[in-house]
Design goal:
Layout (H helix, E strand, L loop, with lengths): L4 H6 L9 E4 L4 E5 L5 E9 L2 E10 L4 H16 L4 H17 L2 H13 L4 H19 L9 H13 L3 H20 L31 H10 L5 H13 L3 H5 L6 E2 L4 E4 L17 E4 L2 H14 L21 H8 L16 H13 L4 H7 L7 H10 L1 H21 L11
Antiparallel strand pairs: 1-2, 2-3, 3-4, 5-6, 6-7
Helix pairs in contact: 4-5, 4-7, 5-6, 6-7, 8-16, 9-11, 14-16
Length: 421
């Protein structure tokens, strides 16, 4: 007689501690343990031997679901398949598929590459994968993903106006598929076929002060009240030495030799890839007279602290925020929400200096590039340039500091031929 739900509900565990079997039909029965745990079993014969197949736990698996699983097992037997072996094969296939899913290989790629990246960048890359790619592609076998399927996902990001993100995701997908191909889990790279398929943002140079705007800015920086001596010194150091804001706020007194007029920026403070920093050379920055004098003054304020541009609210040893210079620009009317005098960002100081120095014709482009700490691709040439341009750069930064000093004093554009070398 077929089993019913009522029979199942009314059957209590054995008081003698024995197992109870409630049989249905076709080899299906419910095994009731003395603990009242209930398990579905399917009894069948294969190659002359009696075997059992677990079909699930009651009540998670209902009587109806158990019968459906039994019927599927009986179909497998009719087709010459042993249900237990089929299940084991399916589990192996599922494990292989999971290991070959887009998400699995993407995480494998991320784990490998993250050792070369700064922790913040590694976290950012993982977030973009989780946000934009894993929901649609994560569970899919990577070998089954075609160019159009990937393009559909990337187009969603593009339509949201995140053009840079969409293009970076395509590049990351290309690297992920390359790993899959190298490890035998894919045969083609659909991301490589999508080069040029996404819109690209038209890049614009970072806003920088023009030569005509420079006098107004310099006078404002000198005369505006409420800007601390340390903050004003930070702005001058970035402008006159043409350094990046990140490496400047991290300048330590131990890095600076005032007697020699030389600032040594260690590799860990430079804008370099993590893999390059352990073997990179420090960047040597000659200091003009005006900066040496400014640093002599600052020694009375921050000389007992680790950082030259120490954060005045945190005596524990923090440096000033990288956002401080742009805040000053906004206050002076040259950036952010206040552009009444012009529009610039602090990184644009480097462009302003580079433009004026190149147009002066007084210094070699190589020396200018070296001062800006732009990397030389030719490693032999890079080693030579490190030594060869130091004295020229020393003369150059002094000329540039003189130019800035004269422009500040006169409040107007100074012809370059009026600035002494």
């Amino acid at each position: 007689m077929p089993l019913t739900n009522l029979t199942i509900e009314n059957t209590l565990p054995s008081a003698e501690g024995k197992q109870i079997k409630l049989f249905d039909a076709g080899g299906l029965y419910l095994l009731i343990k003395p603990t009242n745990h209930r398990y579905w079993r399917f009894k069948y014969r294969w190659a002359g031997r009696e075997k059992l197949l677990a079909l699930g736990v009651y009540p998670e698996i209902s009587l109806k679901m158990a019968r459906a699983r039994r019927d599927e097992a009986r179909r497998q037997l009719a087709n010459g398949q042993e249900p237990s072996e089929k299940r084991r094969a399916d589990k192996v296939a599922a494990r292989i598929a999971a290991a070959s899913s887009f998400k699995a290989i993407a995480l494998e790629w991320h784990h490998t590459k993250s050792g070369e990246w700064a922790p913040g960048h590694a976290d950012s890359v993982l977030r973009t994968l989780e946000m934009h790619l894993f929901p649609d592609l994560g569970a899919r076998p990577i070998a089954d993903i075609e160019p159009m399927a990937l393009l559909d996902v990337l187009k969603k990001v593009e339509k949201a106006g995140r053009l840079d993100t969409a293009n970076r995701l395509r590049e990351r997908c290309e690297a992920i598929f390359r790993l899959a191909i190298k490890t035998g889990r894919a045969r083609h790279n659909p991301a490589a076929e999508l080069v040029g398929a996404l819109k690209k943002r038209i890049s614009t140079p970072r806003p920088a002060l023009s030569q005509e705007q420079l006098p107004v800015f310099l006078v404002a920086l000198r005369d505006t009240d409420g800007i601390s001596l340390v903050t004003r010194g930070l702005m001058r150091m970035i402008l006159l030495c043409m350094t990046r804001v990140g490496e400047t706020v991290r300048a330590e007194w131990s890095h600076i030799d005032l007697a020699k007029g030389l600032w040594t920026i260690p590799p860990e403070n430079r804008k370099l890839k993590s893999t390059v920093k352990p073997i990179a050379q420090p960047h040597l920055v000659p200091l003009p007279r005006q900066i040496v004098e400014m640093l002599e003054e600052l020694r009375y304020i921050t000389g007992q602290r680790r950082y030259v541009f120490a954060h005045h609210h945190t005596p524990g040893g923090k440096h000033m925020s990288e956002s401080t210079p742009n805040t000053v620009l906004e206050r002076l009317g040259f950036g952010g929400k206040n552009t009444k005098n012009g529009n610039a960002v602090i990184h644009g100081f480097r462009a302003t200096a580079s433009t004026i120095l190149n147009e002066s014709g007084l210094f070699s482009p190589d020396a200018i590039e070296r001062q800006l700490s732009h990397l030389e691709r030719n490693q032999v040439r890079a080693a030579y340039n490190r030594a060869a341009y130091l004295e020229e750069r020393r003369a150059m930064v002094q000329w540039w500091a003189n130019y800035i000093e004269m422009t500040t004093e006169k409040g107007c554009v100074i012809p370059v031929d009026q600035v002494p070398l």
